[in-house]
Fold this sequence. Notes:
By secondary structure, chain A is mainly alpha-helical. Chain A contains four helices and no strands.
Amino acid sequence: MVELLNVSLIIVNILVLLGVVYFSYTIYCYNRANKDWLVVTGALLLMALRSLLSLFVEFGFLGKISEVVQRFDLLLFPLLISICFFWGLKGMKNSFETFSVIQKKAKEVSKEVKK
Amino acid sequence: MSKSTLEIINSGKYLESVSSIVKNKSKEGQIIYITTNRLVKNLIKHFKESKIQVDKILFIDCISKRVGKIDEEIKNCLFLESSRSLTSIGLAITQCIKNLSGKKIVILDSLSTLLIYNDENTTGRFSNFLINKMKYKEVDFVIFALKIDLDRKIIKHIVSCSDEVKEW
């Protein structure tokens, strides 16, 4: 019973994460010039992949390599996900800062022209 | 009603053609001039020689910062990082339109240079976005392109979405 609940939760998690990846990618499509958002999408995709692997481990699909996968899941995946989020969101922050500077400067320059 | 025009210019007489277009357009309304291939300082010098009232033009310069030659004395110019950041260019144009009153004319100089910094699909999407945005905002839009680029797919696409095409 507990196992069934575990598997169901993992499946729901994967489905929700795939939805999140889809929405994140559609946001990227609005502004293809900004590649940083694609890194954030990559991090979300890694999260979905991580859940998928834990589902495979739960079902015993991975056989002997499940131990290696679990080790990756414990160490490498969280690090990769954190790096992707860090890189992507840092880039996005820089972009937003640039945009707010442009908005401010555009106002100032427009005033100069009106004079 | 607003109008979008594609000006196909012969590279041999580029500056003369540009000056002539700007001179004519400046009589119609307030100009927002986006330069991607010439430093605003040089452009202003040339426009002054052609007796164009440059202080009534709002410049958006996408090249000076890249080559490290910003002239702080030019108050009517918004300096952007590069011609690669199409989002920044789009945002700058939108904000300038919002902050200026009366009839406005946006001049993009030039599609050929944008194609050097960005791939054809991205430039095409951006140009299409601008043409439609200008229509929606009821702003006249003029795009310059070099004659040598006439065979490119994107130019043919812009020709099909523009209201008018002129050759110089």
